[in-house]
Amino acid sequence: MNIKCFLFPLLFYPGILVNAQELDELDRFIQDVKVKTFDCPSDDMIPKLDEYLTNTSISNSQRFHLQLEKTHWQICNGNYSQAEATVDSVIADPNAKQSEEYYALAVYQKGFLFDVKEDKRRCDFYQQAKELSLGKFDDISLSSELGLMTYCEARIDEGQKLKRLFDILELYSLRGDAPTIAHIHNNIGLIYGRIGQHVLAAEQFQKTYEIGLPHYQGANKYASLISVFTSLLASGQFYDAERVISKLDGARKEVDVPLVHAWYYYAKGRFYQRLERAVELQQTVIDWKPHLVDMKNSIFTGMHRWFEIEVCINEKQIECIKQFVNEEETGGPKALSFLGGNVDYLTLMAKAYLELGDIEKARAYFIDFSAELRAKLASNQSSGKVLGVANLYNKIGELESTLMREQLNRERIAIVFICVFVVAILIVVIAWRKKEAKASSIDSVSALLNSIAALREIRKVPAPSANKINALAIFDLANFKEVNRLLGSSNADEAIKQIASTFKNSTRESDILGRFAPEQFIVCLPDIEEESAKAFFERIRFALENTNLGKQNDIKINVSSSMSIYLANGPLIDLDEVLDDMMLSLSLKSETA
User: What pLDDT does residue 379 have?
Assistant: First the structure.
């Protein structure tokens, strides 16, 4: 389940105490108590606000303004039903003027209240609120636009929505408007969550929390943590999700209000339910119940009931399960029907009917579960195409903290982007050149270093440590022409590959191995004891001469070789002269043979 978070810092101007009879003071109070759509009126302002509302001499406009700030405060505290009743009455009141800010706010709040219930009618109200506020009431216009982008406008690709959101984010980053920036990150997280990209969603919600924390007050400082938790749990990041529960525990100790307790206990219950930790889930249900007395929020009450039923199913309490399914089928007051097609709810119903032995109904819910899951998987797959765009803009979004601190202008941002682009191009070019250089260093047949690359690496070998040497050997395939004749020229390359494999298997990773000439291979053993080097080379020669290249006309084909060894107490600086001497030695051996 995706818990909606209404995000607000608490703007509060203390010390303004007015006489209810002085209407000019009332107007000033209305300006003081009024906050942005994603902020919260201060708790300290509400008693004075209620006092003004009892005054029958205030104007309709003043009354509506006060009522809408009161509903704003109620929404902040999760009292949705109380808020909705007042919002409906303001919208329906014939004295309400649609050109006034309070009316646009009422329409927006109605959209948000539908949003909380996942009711598609939210889109109609968000659209109307946008039209009523466009060019007049910026925060209502922005929040309505964000709501439309997040949940409506189905014809617009998510990639385009994310682009628009990051463009808006850049604009407000330039202004240094931290509360609004946090609000935008929250909506970016909601879009990521809708397309199943929960890791990215968690990152955005975490930014909302971190950016808003210094500016928000009260419960609103921690509102985004429940979204962080939900995304972490959905992406299987259980350790991090449990850490968020600890933060919520600290938050409820700091802000002792029903909504924060609800966030904490919901997160605990969902965590234990997901990990099938039945004992902890049962204890959470017990601990949460006393806090529901003051919680006038049907959603969290429903979540508590959900966890209760999970406990009943775990303990096979048949009567409890019967009451639950009867409530769901009849649509009773405790029904969890607001969960709709939620896959966890469908799983819960299937498990309940299985415990009751009603296989047919359990199968029906399982079929619905399977269909919903397939739809989500298909949606997530199709959303993959937007992630390239999304990640690009996400990287751009990481600049907003710098933008806020330094108020960078657009020209400087453009320079940063150009530099990033140039650096990226350079990295690609360097990587490509390295790849090309590596490819040009490899012998195409043996897949070993070619002669040029092998000698280059040998020249880099430093002086050996005390009592050790650098050892060099050239192996000559003395009978390869005969081998080639027996195998046939078409099989010569395969023979070279097999011989190269013998060299690879006989040497170490630290050794330098290359194809020195068509019938010769070179091996360098850096920093090795002299006797060990001589024995090592003999083992290589022995392995080489026991390499079976196959049979031809009942003749077993092996390679015979000769080798020339050079042992150095220092670096191989005069390598060309050394190689000349070694080749001369091989030539003399060949003539002697």
Answer: 57
Buried b (16+ CB within 10 A) or exposed e, 153-175: eeeeebbebbbbbbebbbebbbe
Q: Which of 37-51, 92-106, 411-425 has the lowest mean pLDDT?
A: 411-425
pTM: 0.57
Q: Is the separation of the CB atoms in 524 and 512 below 8 Å?
A: yes
Which run of H or of E encompasses 555?
Answer: strand 555-558
Look at residue 425 in the predicted model and tell me its pLDDT.
55
411 neighbors 418 (Cβ within 8 angstroms): no
Count the neighbouring beta carbons within 10 Å of the beta carbon of residue 459.
Answer: 12
The pair of three-digit structure tokens given for residue 472, joined into one six-digit string: 């060099």
Confidence of residue 432 (pLDDT cuts 50, 70, 90): low
* CA separation for the pair 523, 475 (Å, rounded): 8
C-alpha neighbours within 13 Å on the C-beta side of residue 558: 11
Q: Tokens representing 274? A: 């997901």
Provide the pairing of β-strand 469-477 with 520-528.
Answer: antiparallel
Under a CB-based contact definition with an 8 Å cutoff, are residues 246 and 43 in contact?
Answer: no
Nearest to 295 by CA among 73, 80, 109, 67: 80
Task: Indicate whether 92 pLDDT > 90.
Answer: yes
Q: In this structure, are residues 472 and 523 in contact, taking their beta carbons and an 8 Å threshold?
A: yes
CB contact at 8 A, 575 and 455: yes
Mean pLDDT value across the chain: 80
Question: What is the three-class DSSP state of 136?
Answer: coil
Q: Is the pLDDT of residue 416 over 60?
A: no
User: How many angstroms separate the CA atoms of 429 and 435, rounded?
Assistant: 10
Sign of the Cα torsion 220, 225, 230, 231 reads: positive
Q: Is 215 exposed, middle or buried (0-12, 13-18, 19+ CB in 10 A)?
A: middle
In terms of average pLDDT, the best of 167-181, 366-380, 383-397 is 167-181
268 band by pLDDT with thresholds 50, 70 and 90: very high
Burial class (CB in 10 A: 0-12, 13-18, 19+), 55: middle
How distant, in Å, are the alpha carbons of 126, 218, 274 from that of 76?
A: 18, 10, 28
Q: What Å distances lie between residue 169 and 160, 173, 313, CA to CA? A: 14, 6, 46
What 3 state SS string does 320-369 have?
HHHHHHHHHHHCCCCCCHHHCCCHHHHHHHHHHHHHHCCHHHHHHHHHHH
Look at phi and psi of residue 52 and say left if phi exceeds 0, alpha if psi is from -120 to 50, else beta. Answer: alpha
Q: How many Cβ atoms sit within 10 Å of the Cβ of residue 488?
A: 10
Q: What are phi and psi of 76, to 5 degrees?
A: -55, -35
The dihedrals phi and psi of 539, each to the nearest 5 degrees, come to -65, -40
Residue 273 backbone phi and psi in degrees, to 5: -65, -40
- The reported pLDDT for the residue numbered 228 is 92
Measuring CA to CA, how many Å separate 234 from each of 80, 194, 198, 453?
Answer: 26, 12, 6, 51
Tell me which of 298 and 522 has the higher pLDDT. Answer: 522
Query: Could you give the CA distance from residue 536 to residue 507 in angstroms, rounded to a whole number?
Result: 9
Q: Is the pLDDT of residue 488 over 50?
A: yes
